[in-house]
Design a protein that fits this description.
This protein is α/β, with parallel strands linked by helices. The chain is built from six helices and 18 strands.
Length: about 290
């Protein structure tokens, strides 16, 4: 079943998300970061308000030609603690300055652009997020400047922008895209001005409360050579991940009756601190190497 959504950023202002929800919108995807050292000023407040109104929430990063490892770091830092997310996305297009398009990304070429997208996707997975991850771009860029097959092989879904008089009410583009941005000039109650309109055919997780409980929160200090045990209550085997895998090793210990026990063994340097994530949700607790 297709789900209608919108994508927004600081320039959208502070929407009335209850009105947005009543208008039939099921999710929002909010800009979190752009390039390096730029975080969207309204991200945290809008994400919190949208979720409180009953909307599923996602986040996206606007790709730039700056160092990709730093871009991935900044994106993950910005979204940390504000999940769970229905999806995450990488926005691939040229930036604009004073109304003029700058060929910053297109000049990199297809191979380099695709490699950057896949690098951020891998960083998202390494941080423990299991929600769908999209690459967003225009129809023409998806044909000529992004290796769609390579992106799909890496586990990405495709979010395409294609504008015409077509709308989800009279056109189905599910054969071309997993999510379709069908207008950049939409009108939605609760939002002043135009807004990007989307429809998702697959790959939006409708998430609310965590589907598990854990006996640990906050920050746990563990000395190297020692282990800490946490109990997780979950219907099925939980997916447990460290934000930085080379600092903490996670070892399944035992399970039974819906209870799952894991050892957390620090292998990083004293003072290192890493987040622990369960089932792709927000950070459950921190492990600090003692």
């Amino acid at each position: 079943m297709a789900i209608k959504g919108i994508d927004i950023y600081n320039g959208t202002g502070r929407p009335d998300f209850a009105a947005v929800k009543r208008a039939g919108i099921g999710y929002i995807i909010h800009k979190a970061t752009e390039g390096v050292n730029f975080a969207d000023a309204s991200f945290a407040a809008n994400i919190t308000a949208a979720r409180a109104a009953g909307l599923s929430v996602g986040a996206y990063h606007f790709l730039r030609a700056t160092p990709i490892d730093r871009q991935a770091h900044d994106f993950l830092a910005a979204i940390d603690g504000h999940g769970p997310y229905c999806c995450l996305a990488i926005d691939v297009e040229n930036p604009r300055k004073n109304g003029v398009t700058i060929p910053e990304i297109s000049s990199l070429g297809k191979a380099a652009i695709t490699a950057r997208v896949i690098t951020i996707c891998k960083a998202i997975r390494a941080a423990g997020y299991t929600c769908p991850v999209y690459v967003y771009s225009s129809a023409s860029w998806l044909r000529s400047l992004i290796d769609v097959d390579a992106c799909r092989k890496a586990g990405l879904l495709i979010w395409g922008a294609a504008y015409s008089r077509a709308t989800p009410d009279n056109t189905d583009r599910s054969n071309a895209y997993d999510m379709w941005q069908w207008s950049s000039r939409g009108s939605v109650p609760g939002i002043s001005g135009s807004v990007d309109m989307d429809v998702c055919y697959k790959g939006i997780n409708t998430v609310s409360a965590p589907n598990y409980t854990c006996d640990t929160s906050g920050t746990v200090e563990i000395a190297r050579g020692k282990a800490y045990q946490a109990e997780i209550i979950c219907k099925d085997a939980p997916k447990v991940a460290a934000g930085t895998p080379d600092e903490v090793t996670i070892l399944p210990r035992s399970s039974g009756g819906g209870k799952w026990y894991y050892y957390f063994v620090p292998i990083g340097k004293p003072g290192d601190c890493v987040g622990i994530y369960i089932n792709g949700g927000p950070k459950q607790f921190m492990v600090r190497v003692k």
